[in-house]
TrEMBL record:
Pfam families: Cupin_6, HTH_18. It comes from Allosediminivita pacifica. The keyword Transit peptide does not apply. Residues 198-296 form the HTH araC/xylS-type domain. One of its GO terms (molecular function) is DNA-binding transcription factor activity. SMART domains: HTH_ARAC (SM00342). This is AraC family transcriptional regulator. It comes from the Bacteria. The keyword DNA repair does not apply. InterPro entries: AraC_lig, AraC_XylS_family_regulators, Homeodomain-like_sf, HTH_AraC. Keywords: DNA-binding, Transcription, Transcription regulation.
């Protein structure tokens, strides 16, 4: 499994839908801060302006999808001077959806589909720390054209449409991340595009329980220890052994949640010969030891 796929799988990438809407002009809808979700809006028809935290506006073209990262507050409007934003909660409470679609006024100036992509909120992986505040997936970009076309077709709410929409939104995000890896000069995605750092990351993800040292990872990367540490830290935001520890804890959390392995077995598979050392590290990252964390999750 490649590193990006491994990260998305273990951070529990999941998509969901907020609403489908047909809005008459003028309209202005405000979406509040939400904990670390990536929210998306697919413009099916018409014109849409998106304002991020009230500071600047981007015009969304029909067929395009915009992603707002880190759950940032933002506004959807028909254009400049559209008025005071109506909280999205008030819009949903006052307008019962007909056929799954919220209709506000007529004729519709914009038809859109809104949803979210989320990861395990308790995990701070560097992949999610380096994303731009807003990303636009354009309908004429070859990387996204097929997925966006499928999203537009499934927005008609046929049988099984919600499942298809969820999976397609997840695929589009991964394709977007892959594209960013080619464009970014810094951050985790840039590390994936650096052949030496990519070899180091692949080694960690291939065998996270191995007794890795900086020297061993440097051999995998085909770099000296000092150059690996400097370049890795500059792009990923932590040294190689720090990332190894983070990834081990992420996998341990998943094993404790999804398997019947004992805490001792999880510790061993996570590369820890000492259960107290494993428990201390897990507690430092997640606020409680592995045993209490598992019991609380099952309560």
């Amino acid at each position: 499994m490649d590193v990006l796929t491994d990260v998305c799988a273990n951070l529990r990438l999941r998509a969901g839908m907020h609403f489908s809407a047909e809005l008459a002009a003028p309209f202005s809808v405000g979406l509040p801060q939400e904990a670390r979700r990536i929210r998306f809006h697919l413009l099916l028809e018409g014109e849409l302006h998106l304002s991020l935290s009230g500071h600047w506006t981007r015009v969304i073209a029909p067929g395009d999808m915009v992603l707002v990262t880190e759950g940032a507050a933002h506004g959807l409007m028909s254009g400049p001077g559209a008025g005071t934003p109506l909280p999205v909660s008030a819009l949903l409470a006052a307008n019962s959806p007909a056929d799954g679609v919220i209709r506000l006024g007529s004729p519709a100036a914009a038809r859109l589909l809104s949803g979210y992509l989320e990861f395990d909120p308790a995990i701070r992986h560097p992949l999610l720390s380096d994303l731009p505040a807003m990303l636009t997936l354009r309908h004429d970009d070859v990387a996204f054209v097929a997925g966006l076309r499928l999203m537009r077709e499934e927005a008609r709410c046929g049988a099984g449409a919600e499942f298809v929409l969820h999976r397609t939104a997840e695929i589009l995000l991964i394709r977007c991340l892959r594209q960013l890896a080619l464009d970014e000069g810094a951050g985790f995605l840039a590390a994936l595009d650096d052949p030496a750092l990519a070899r180091c990351l692949a080694a960690i993800h291939r065998a996270p329980g191995q007794d890795w040292t900086v020297a061993a990872l440097a051999r995998e990367a085909k770099l000296s220890r000092s150059i690996l540490s400097e370049r890795f830290t500059a792009k990923v935001g932590m040294p190689p052994v720090g990332y190894l520890t983070l990834w081990r804890m992420i996998l341990a959390r998943r094993m404790l949640s999804d398997s019947a392995l004992t805490v001792e077995e999880v510790a061993e598979r996570s590369g820890y010969a000492s259960l107290p050392a494993f428990s201390r590290r897990f507690s430092q990252m997640f606020g409680k030891g592995p045993g209490p964390w598992r019991r609380d999750r099952g309560a």
